[in-house]
Amino acid sequence: MNAPLHSPTLFRLSHRLSSIGVSEILKISGLAAEMKRQGRDVIILGAGEPDFDTPDSIKDAAERAMRAGATKYTALDGAPELKSAIRAKFKRDNGLEFAQDEITVSAGAKQVLFNAMMATINPGDEVIIPAPFWVTYADIVTIVGGTPVLVPCSEANGFRLSTDDLERAITPRTRWLMLNSPSNPSGAAYSETDYRPILDALIKHPHVWLMVDDIYEHIVYDGFRFVTPAAIEPALRSRTLTVNGVSKAYAMTGWRIGYGAGPSPLIRAMAVVQSQSTSCPSSVSQAAAIEALNGPQDFIRERCRSFQQRRDLVVGALNGIDGISCRVPEGAFYTFASCAGLIGKITPDGRTLQSDTDFAEYLLRTVGVAVIPGSAFGLAPYFRISYATSAVELEDACQRIARATAGLSRKPKDDAERP
C-alpha cells in the first residue's frame, strides 16, 4: 500500500536538487566499472586523474606528520605552514604575492569553488560559464541558487571564449565569470594574448568578478607558456579568485587538498561557509601538500612529457578515423573530438546514432570503450577521452573505436529519393 502524500515518512527532495543528478562522468564510469566486475573487457577513458602514483617524498612527509602526532584539527581554512607554502608557490610560479589572509585551503579545489559561490551568490545572480565546461561548475551555481549562463565556444576559436560573446552574456545580474585553463574537457588553454581582450572587457564591468580554475597549470605542451589573469591585469586583483590544488600535477587526487587566493573579504566569507560544512582539511594531507609545493618539482616536467606522447598518440589515431576529427589540445590530459561525421549513421543492430550520447553508449556496448559525450560538458556533438592511462590501453582503445565506427553504415535513401 502506498504511503499517503502527507505521510511524514515520505522522502522529499529539496528544490535545489530537482534539476541536478549524478554527473554523466560518474554514471558512465560507474557503468563501465560494473561491466568490468562482471568480467567484460572494458577500457575506461573517463577518469580525470593521473595514472601516476603520488611521489614517495610526499608520502614520506605524510608519514612523518602522522608519527609526529599531526593528526589533530588545524586552522579552519588551512594550517599557517601550508598557507606559507602556497604563497611561495604563487610567487615562484606566477609572480604573484598574496598575504596570509588572502589564502584559503579546502578539501579539494571543488570545495574552494563551492565555498566561493555559497559566500557570494544570491537567488537570481548569474554566473557566465564558457562551454564546454567541467560539469560541476554549473551544478554548483544551481545548488546555491544562482543561474548558470552557458556560452558555447566554437572549435574554430579553439574552444575559447570570445570577447563579443562575453559582452553579450553580461547583464546587471552577472556576478562571476568562470574560466578554466587548461580546460577540462577540451584541453584548450588561454595565452596572455587570448586573455587580454577578455580582461579588458571585465575592467569595463566592475560588478563582474573573475574565478579562474588553474588546476591543470603544470600540464601544458609544445612550449605553451601558462599565465593566470591576476598576474596579467593588476586592476582585476581585487575581484579575482585564483583556484588551484595539488591533485593533478602531483598525482594527489585522493588526498583532497585544493586552495584559492583572492581578496581577504572574500576569503573570510569562504571560511565562514567552510566552518559550517567540513571545517579544516585533513591535517595529514596538508602536511603532504606542503612537501608537494616546497619539494622537488622536476618530476612534473618528466610526467608532462609522458602525457604529451599519449596526447599525440590519441589525436593522431582519432584523426585517422573517418567521421571523427580532433583538435590538438594545449594542455590537461583530455582530447575533445568531434563525432559530427557519425551522427545519423546506423549501427549493425539497426539503431540510428542521433547524438554524441548515442555514440558513447555504442562504443561501450559494442567494443567496451568508455568515453564521455560532449553534451555532458555543454557542447555537442563531441566526446572526451582522458589519456591519463597507459599508451598500451590507449592504442587498444583507439583501435576498438576505429573498429566500431567501421561497422556503421549510412541510412539507405527512400525509394522516392533514389534516382
Give a structural overview.
A seven-stranded mixed β-sheet has the order 2-8-7-6-5-3-4, sandwiched between helices. It has a four-stranded antiparallel β-sheet with strand order 9-10-13-12. Helix 2 (56-67) packs across helix 10 (283-294), helix 4 packs across helix 9 (264-275) and helix 11 packs parallel to helix 13. The longest helix has 22 residues, at 298-319. The chain is of the alpha/beta class and 419 residues long. It has 13 helices and 13 strands. The protein is 38% helix and 13% strand. The chain is globular, with a radius of gyration of 23 Å.
Question: What is the beta-strand fraction?
Answer: 5-15%
pLDDT averaged residue by residue: 94
Q: Strands of the largest sheet, in order across it?
A: 2-8-7-6-5-3-4
Could you list the spans in which at least 5 consecutive residues all have pLDDT below 50? 413-419
Q: What's the shape?
A: globular
The main β sheet shows up as: 7 strands, mixed
Distance between the termini: 62 Å
Can you give the helix content as a percent range? Answer: 25-40%
Q: What pattern of helices and strands is seen along the backbone? A: HEHHEHEHEHEHEHEEHHHEEHEEEH
Question: Which class best fits the helix and strand makeup?
Answer: alpha/beta
Q: How many β strands by DSSP?
A: 13
Q: For the CA atoms, what is the radius of gyration?
A: 23 Å
What is the number of helical segments per DSSP (H or I, 4+ residues)? 13
